[in-house]
Design a protein that fits this description.
single chain; 651 residues; alpha+beta; Immunoglobulin-like; five-stranded antiparallel beta sheet; four-stranded antiparallel beta sheet; 15 helices; 24 strands; 25% strand; globular; Alpha-macroglob_thiol-ester_cl
Length: 651
Amino acid sequence: MELEDSPAFSAVPVEKNEESHCICGNGRKTVSWAVTLKSLGKVNFTATAEALQSQELCGNEVPKVPMFGQKDTVIKSLLVEPEGIEKEETFNTLLCAPETEVPEKLSLKVPSNVVEGSARATYSVLGDILSSAMQNLQNLLRMPYGCGEQNMVLFVPNIYVLNYLNETRQLTENIKSKAINHLISGYQRQLNYKHNDGSYSTFGEHGGTSQGNTWLTAFVLKAFSQARSHIFVEDSHITNSLTWLSQKQRENGCFQRSGSLLNNAMKGGVDDEVTLSAYITIALLEMPLPVTHPVVRNALFCLERAWESTSEAQGSLVYTKALLAYAFALAGNQAKRRELLQSLDKEAVKEGDSIHWQRPGKLQEAEAFSYQPRAPSAEVEMTSYLLLAYLTAQPAPSSEDLSVASHIVKWITKQQNPTGGFSSTQDTVVALQALSKYGAATFSKREKTVTVTVRSSQAFSEEFQVDDANCLLLQEVALPEIPGEYSTTVSGSGCVYLQTFLRYNILPEKEGKVPFSLKVTTLPKNCNGAAAHRKFQIHINISYTGERPSSNMVIVDVKMVSGFIPVKPSVKKLQERPQIQRTEVSTNHVLIYFEELTKQALSFSFLVEQDIQVDNLKPASVKAYDYYETEEFTIEEYSAPCSAESEHRNA
């Protein structure tokens, strides 16, 4: 038996001076090494077993070497992570040559409490506005996909990518088959959240939800209708949902809300009947249904009346007005579209060469971030709706519309995460739709190559070429100096999207005001006996302490202590509790979903057991976060009760 040497670890055999082992027929032997890891990320272990010729007797027999299968090799990878809490910063910019004369500067900094050796940075060059999303269609969000709304992020962006690449004549067989496979599996998975009456809800009928959700049903109806040009979608899934929605339409054309909306962040937003009606009208027009369809005609009547009565009001209606502008644009009502865009232009935030919209009273707390904070989900969403409104003009958007659109795109692309998505579900879906529409409206073949050069203030330098043949590819390089100063120059002709992704771990610090009260304890307290070292219970107590009466959907993410895995039946049992909608076990995490949390504390616990013996155990983290307002989170740590770390703490 042999374990191959690697610069990533050092390994010492547990049994000294034993190179070979005698194994009788049907026998077994365990060989162990004590391993010390030296690098982060995926580390491969390559173990080889070989049958050797030998004259020594094994038991009472002479060893036989088989003719075939004398040697076998197994490669297993192990994920090595730094301790503490992972933070990530993304810097996105759009540079065009030859307009960009001055080199673009980038300063990578890490805080003083960074875990040593944990900082790593990647610099990417993308030739197309959707390159990043195309490379990551199954992983646009660094979040779990366990409910009927989140699953749509695995489904809908594939439609926009296929349509965009078709329109710009860039679709390859490889991308097409990948996107269509995602569509088929996303479609099948979405049916798990369908009710018998044709509606959909976040956790489906089996999640204890008795009513369908108006908003989610409209979202699914639109997506399934648009997907039909690429995959087979059963007619009944469309007709039943449309029938159910039309039954929710009042006499005045507006839609009544059914089912809970998990996102209460948009005040004057989706809680309100006009906004919900605008959202549903957009979905129906995007299916597309004609404006003459009775349900659409009545819905537009509702929106026109609503806009007349609220057009004087300012401020809180930004989100609603963004939806109305796009709804009227889709309906071909140019006068109303223009009127709304003029009204919203007064409320736009214009910074440098970018334009966006934000919720009134929601000031960016830039000091809380080291740099470039990512905008809240609702602001990305409303700005994306306005981009769609600027691009949806008949017969075509004017040069003035496209000029405003380019400034909006500058801001939206700055908010993208490393995988091409955004903060949450709706902002990702709407932003990718808007970016693909902008990309198609402004697409032109590259006549020349664009050369991108990134340099550090020290010796590092890397050059990238972007041309027609490779513009959909993601080209990237690791940046070696952190902290460090970098600059980028572009030459040639055309635009490129640049993305720098910095990750590092920090040791948790008690922050000031936190939105959740989170307490984590482990049992047993007594470490006598071997069983206490092999199995323990994680007990969590949580409540919402933020400014609203209740939170949005909350996910509690419990990371396992190294070498321990959850006892699955004890996790599954948590779903019997009315407040817990769903649980998932994902690699070394347990995820628990709450539809909402209030000031009233909830307690729950589950078991974990040892899978691999690990020495010098470090604490693991439990993170509770609001799914829609991801900047609202709380983190606590816990240790295995019988690890040296926790025993030292208790001493």
